[in-house]
Amino acid sequence: DAGVQRDRAVSAQEWLHKWAEGKTGFHQEQGHPLLRKYLDVLLNGRSGLRIFFPLCGKAVEMKWLADMGHHVVGVEISEQALREFFSEQGLPYREEPVPGIPGAKVLQSTSGNISLYCCSIYDLSSAVVGKFDGVWDRGALVAVNPCDRQRYASLMISLMEKNSSYLLVTVLYDPNKHKGPPFYVPESEIRSLFG
């Protein structure tokens, strides 16, 4: 029963603390094997796509997809995570404020094919970041507070082009035994959120 987690909430400060303390067991140094396995579903034979990484952290897959010729856009509240991404990947970048979002900044690779926004995901809109051909949601929906899932799903849908692909990874477990995150999101709720 996913209802036991319904009122559970993790604050932005708690997420920032996890990054500061190195409590990022969710980060995968080698990338997620399911992206490699289902890459054809995400790309659907297309090249030069705009691919969105919600709550991207320092996901190594961002460079991997950019190296394939795709334009990658991510969003993450932790500036530390974004700086670590560019440093660990050996990528030079520039930093600029984001017009219309106080305190937000975008870190962009000097090659221009990776743009990472440092702000709340809910500050973004298609007016700011455009629309995407694909979304790699490897740990965002399961990290979003349960009370914010509808808001999150509505935002994701608003950022997607008509023929975009949404690749989603969730986790299955007994929510009575773990308070989350990652939060348990039953398949029925995924269908309700995304159709």
TrEMBL record:
Please give the biological process terms from Gene Ontology that the record holds: methylation
Question: Recorded E.C. number(s)?
Answer: 2.1.1.67
Catalytic EC class: transferase
Keyword tags: Cytoplasm, Methyltransferase, S-adenosyl-L-methionine, Transferase
List the Gene3D superfamilies hit by this protein, alphabetically.
Vaccinia Virus protein VP39 (3.40.50.150)
Tell me where it resides: Cytoplasm
Primary subcellular site in the record, as a coarse category: cytoplasm
The record ties this protein, via Pfam families, to: TPMT
Q: Which family does it belong to?
A: Belongs to the class I-like SAM-binding methyltransferase superfamily. TPMT family.
Record protein name field: thiopurine S-methyltransferase
The scientific name of the source species is Crypturellus undulatus
What gene name does this entry carry? Tpmt
